[in-house]
Amino acid sequence: MEYRRFDDTIIMRIDPGEEICEQLIAVAQKEEISLSEISGLGAINDFTTGVFDTARKEYHSNHFTGTFEIVSLTGTLTRKAGEVYLHAHFSAGDEKGNVFGGHLNRAVVSATAEIIIRIINGEVGRSFHEEIGLNLFCF
Predict the structure, then answer these.
(1) What is the 3-state secondary structure (H, E, C) of the chain?
(2) What's the rounded Cα separation, in Å, for the pair 31 and 6?
(3) What phi and psi, each to the nearest 5 degrees, are found at residue 18?
(4) Residue range 37-65, pLDDT digits in tens
């Protein structure tokens, strides 16, 4: 992974075999990011997404392997109890145009991934909301 920071924007390239979430968290730690939005695209060959069941308050994971293009990667980097907290949604299409996605748990790059991190001046934390069952923005 390589990246360059331009004022409030980071442009990063994630290389084959690297995992997207790990690299995003590493950059957020190194750059001491408290609040930002992320977006990206690229090619992957192994990913896991989840869908939150609001009635049961649990995620159901789906794992995919093969040849995929990232159709959409969007999310936020915040902090929870001082630690980097990544919340990203992700969709990827296969060679036939079928698209799969959900909450991003893991994605391994096959060719490259191009990610933009837009840093927002400020802080928004996270805290667990019992009734909903998720870590929500805490203002």
Answers:
(1) CEEEEECCEEEEEECCCCEHHHHHHHHHHHCCCCCEEEEEEEEEEEEEEEEEECCCCEEEEEEEEEEEEEEEEEEEEEEECCEEEEEEEEEEECCCCCEEEEEEEEEEEEEEEEEEEEECCCCCEEEEECCCCEEEEEC
(2) 12
(3) -90, 150
(4) 999 999 999 999 999 999 999 999 999 99
